[in-house]
Design a protein that fits this description.
Rossmann fold, oxidoreductase, binds beta-D-glucopyranose, Sc_DH/Rdtase_CS, 45% helix, 7-stranded parallel beta sheet, Glucose 1-dehydrogenase, NAD(P)-bd_dom_sf
Length: 255
Amino acid sequence: MDLKGKVAVVTGAGSGIGYAIAQRFAAAGAAVAINYFGYENEARALAERMNSQGGRALAVKADVAKAGEVAAMVEQTTRELGGCHVLVNNAGVEKAMPLLDVTEEEWDKEVSINLKGAFLCLQAAGRAMRDSGQGGSIVNISSIHEDFPFPLHGPYCASKGGLRMLMRNAALELAPYQIRVNNVAPGAVATPINTGTLNDPAKMQRLSEIIPVGRMAKPEEVADVALFLASDSASYVTGSTYYVDGGMVRYAEPL
Ligand code: BGC
């Protein structure tokens, strides 16, 4: 499994799962555009480290919810790194609140970043992949909540469910251009998005009970599956969701 000769854009790569994916892809031989919005120092330091270790990387600031910034990011990546063969839509946010209290502003924020942002990136990168005539691979980091409810996370679940159907539709529409589209659906992963849970012993205890393998995932365990889907090893895989959840969606309370 490698990405030699490929250029990958990873969104939200300044922290968490995106950061691990950028590292994994670089180790597999890819040139990587590390997109960030809030984690500038981390993204820049990561790019510098990759470049100093013989890799090729670029830290690119862009708000994935803004079409102009996304187009500029893909254009800069293609120009400076020599193409765009892989896109990982990883950028995402969530906030817990009862559905009846969700403000219009909060709804717009989560859906804009998690779903519209993925669409804009898919469209910009997809056009570049089509125009190059070389095809490519698009991997969306969704969540087990692309299919399973998560009370108090209405906008998050709606955006992740949308990501599931965006992926399925895109897989069909882009197949003629040799562009594959798949989702990776993580369960609970030890990243900044879960800081509240990681700092709450009662929640951690409950999680270890309801996750069959008994623990949260490390971001690297999600990155390995994203690498497989991005690489030519997955040349016949499109339109699928791969769960990386330690069996969480199969959990059943014994009677
Ligand atoms: C969410 C986490 C949650 C996990 C499992 C993820 O998509 O980001 O907050 O712990 O799903 O429910």
